[in-house]
Amino acid sequence: MTPARFSVQSVTVIGAGTMGHGIAHVAAAAGLSVILCDISAAAVESGLAKIRDNLERGVARGKLTEAERDATLANLQGSDDMAAAVAQADLVIEAIPEHIDLKLKVLSAIAAHAPARAVVATNTSSIPLARLSKALAHPNQFIGLHFFNPVHLQPLLEIVRSDTTDNETLDLALDFAQRIGKDPIVVRDVAGFASSRLGIALGLEAIRMVQEGVATPADIDKAMELGYRHPMGPLKLTDLVGLDVRLAIAETLAREIDPVRFAPPQLLRDMVAAGKLGKKSGHGFYDYD
After folding, report:
1. What digits encode the pLDDT tens for the residues 224-269?
2. What is the separation of C-alpha 115 from the centre of its chain, rounded to a whole number of angstroms?
3. CATH (one of 3.40.50.150, 3.30.428.10, 3.30.750.24, 3.40.50.720) for 10-188
4. Helix extents (H) in the chain
């Protein structure tokens, strides 16, 4: 490893949703100074409230001490002013919805206000970094940090290196992964990377099986959990990730890699259109009332 240009001390996470608040949680728990930023005070507070709730659950289950909970919260603050939130950041992590135009807009704003030394990362699960780096003034300091849900429990961090990412940025990302307790893999900048490409292939086929009446969602999941020792079946996982997120990933891979292999099933499109997004909406392949 070559020496990193600096060690990350301050992190700004843009997007306080499912992934963003989880990333902020683990960074703050690691002792880093963290700002969680979103477009409104209400969105920021919602993300912070979820972090507090997860910490309280950890204390109740004996996984955390009250002192550890308090230390994590002391490292956290929220902001709905992105320019101010990124102004002193060593690392800015974009964790907004999987829409390329929106990501380009946000990354451009980050580039306009973050320090020149800052490393900028995206939590995209499928969009090639080469398509996003054009929004940045320093593409050599751009990298993919693909976390997994729930972030505070899942150990994997997929680090995506583009053709322009320099060695110092990669080393900084690897050091950051270690500091926040994640087990990283490094992959090349190809649509879907490694994890999403494999996961979506299994998930889409499971949805097609439901669409064709092969078996119920529960039985399909049981087949993979008991027969292949998957900790969670592909349809339960789709509900957890979000059907809208899975649809966005499938559309990206269909466009970038193969329109046949990754074509979203009509059932997936219909469920998203009906607002059945999985656990976050209360209804997906399972009901969560």
Report:
1. 999 999 999 999 999 999 999 999 999 999 999 999 999 999 999 9
2. 23
3. 3.40.50.720
4. 18-29, 41-60, 66-74, 82-86, 100-113, 129-132, 167-179, 195-211, 217-227, 234-241, 243-256, 266-273
